[in-house]
Prior knowledge:
The chain is an alpha/beta fold. The protein contains 6 helices and 8 strands; from the N terminus they run βαβααβαβαββββα. The two termini are 18 Å apart. Keywords: Flavoprotein, FMN, Oxidoreductase. InterPro entries: Flavoprotein-like_sf, FMN_Rdtase-like_dom, FMN_Rdtase_MsuE-like, NAD(P)H-dep_FMN_reductase. This is FMN reductase.
Amino acid sequence: MSSPLRVVTVNGSYSAPSKTGALLELVTTTLADHFDLDVTRVEVSTLGPGFTSALERTALSPEALAAVEAVEQADLVVAGTPVFRGSYTGLFKHFFDMVDQYALANHPVLLVATGGGERHALVLEHQLRPLFGFFQAATAPVGIYASTGDFDGTTILNPKIYSRIDTALGDLKPRLQAAIAADTDAHAVAATAA
């Protein structure tokens, strides 16, 4: 029996429900059509003072530390943020400031953003990709951006968004299959040793 794919979504939005949260949910729902998933959803705005007041990792609350560790141990991180003043939100950046510098090296990360209009789409390339480049993460070649016009409330209407998600996940599929195989092999070795 294969291990489920450990997916962690990080939502940098300050509001709930949010368009960013809806887009992250659509990504995981689409991914669930292809893999058995174990999904952890991190909403940075709900982590509270034990997160927002922490100046270093050792000061994080147990809940915030668990969220950071979940990202570090994920097979896939889906990192999403609304565009705020031309970039990711401050809490989104603060969250990733707490992630170990080498924990995401060569690990797949899918970049997701939402914004008021099409002119904000470059946040994927100019802010998010360099951030995860610092971590040496294996960011998916295709990022997913949706603007206000792609939604009715938090329902995504634009079929191009669905197509872009399929393309992005298609690019990641071989790497994700390898992660599942490695996890399954590790569990088999541990079971044999026990």
